[in-house]
Amino acid sequence: MTLSRWLMMILFIDFASSGRVLWKIKARVREAQEQRAQGQAAMLGVSAVQLLEGLIQQPLQHFNRKNAKTFPQRFFVNEAHWNRPHGPVFLYIGGEGLLSKFSVLAGHHVSMAGQHGALLVALEHRFYGQSIIPGGLETQDLEHLSSQEALADLAAFHQHISQKYNLTCRNVWISFGGSYAGALSAWFRGKFPHLVYGAVASSAPVQAKLDFSAYNLVVGHSLRDESVGGSEKCVKAVRESFALLEAALLGGNETQVGKDFRCCETPKSPEDQAELLQSVADIFMGTVQYNEEVGPLTITRICDIMTEDQAEGEEAYHRLVKLSENYRSMEKKSCLEVSWAKTIQYFNQTTDESFGYRQWFYQTCTEFGFYQTCEDSSCLFSHMRTLQTQTQLCLLLFNISQHTLPANIDFTNQYYGGDQPQTHRVLYVNGDIDPWMTLSIVRNGTGEDKHRAVLIRGSAHCADMNPLRSSDRTSLKQARKEIEGCVSAWLKSAAQEYRD
Q1: Is the confidence at residue 126, as pLDDT, over 50?
Q2: Angle of helix 108-116 relative to helix 474-499, nearest 10 degrees?
Q3: What is the pTM (predicted TM-score) of this model?
Q4: Is residue 13 included in any domain, yes or no?
Q5: 487 lies in a domain?
Q6: Count of CB atoms within 10 A of residue 235's CB?
Q7: What's the domain count of the chain?
Q8: Is residue 8 very low, low, confident or very high in pLDDT (cuts 50, 70, 90)?
Q9: SS3 state at 329
Q10: Which residues form the domain of 76?
Q11: Which of 63, 178, 202, 442 could hold 429 in an S-S bridge, CB 3.0 to 4.6 Å?
Q12: What is the CATH number of the domain that holds 455?
């Protein structure tokens, strides 16, 4: 096979095999956060006995009342902190995955609920977790999956809870969400300002972006940041290691590479080699995105691995191998999965899967983009990860032409306002090493939006939402105080308005 033919094949299938390690890291973070949340809930004396889990039958199509079909949407309620009958309501918005009961039992918003006597409610996102239409996740079903429908679900849920608990306008609603759900929190306030008085949007990518090359640019900056354990030496080693790995694959040494990285199967095909390249890159991407939330892997740790023994002349390639060993040890895996065929099979699952990989990729095709490319010189990883390869997968999986994506993304930004939202009482919270911050709001506005942004030094993705830890950075502790002050000010303002 010629080199040009090899490159064409690897470019075509690259994104089909990307992201699985990153999503596994995300799952590990979520598991760790749930364990911490469980501990916090136990410490506060809050138990599942005080928890209500229920279902609301939602219209499959809010904007087409001729369609009478419905689906069951799961929600949680925690009344333990509620100061009846006029206490506020804190709404936790579910995102692209299974909604946990700890969404109303622990976390920073739960701590604030205790301070303000708030009723805690949470709604799972349609087509994720257990809130999936009977019949699975076929493409024709996914046509009913959108952020617009999700916001309409929230509005219907607001009515359901209001009726169930006899709420009035004196019960002030504040919404909370992180990542995609953070964007939903901001958009819910923007589209339904009569329902939610204020919104906290943590790590919220409110600007849709087709070519999200800035993601890996921030990864590079964060790996260079000495305050979180990075260094220029680390960045140089990472760049060198990927050049050597790619050269080994191009040079026909895939059998040795497979042994070095303990691949579950020898990456002989271009597809499997692309899977390997992306999986190793994901270790860096996931560690940066969730720094200090991923267990033993942190920016400090991976940079130590990538720079140790450098004086003795050990190749960066072998340090990359060692990092992969550390990742497999963390995941308790005997080998690294690099099968492109298994990844495609994973994408095409149409039965209930709690993590929502297929559904989320559908939303990237129809609404958001967010394709984390690596084509420019600033990217530290394999430059074979292009925009074209990723958008072609929309056609392969869902019959969505790549030529329609720019219009889909333009509509999203026009509909919500992109990075110029004309809303107030929305607080955007971001960590400055989080790659997603570039699609959020990180600067304060004017007038009523003078204090709309909190940027946390040395903090990563959605860290402010987690249960408090004594080991949290001072900047993170201070940010939580700012959030608390903002929420308190909203509630005081609302109380004054209703008295007047």
Answers
A1: yes
A2: 40
A3: 0.91
A4: yes
A5: yes
A6: 21
A7: 2
A8: very low
A9: helix
A10: 44-206+424-499
A11: 202
A12: 3.40.50.1820
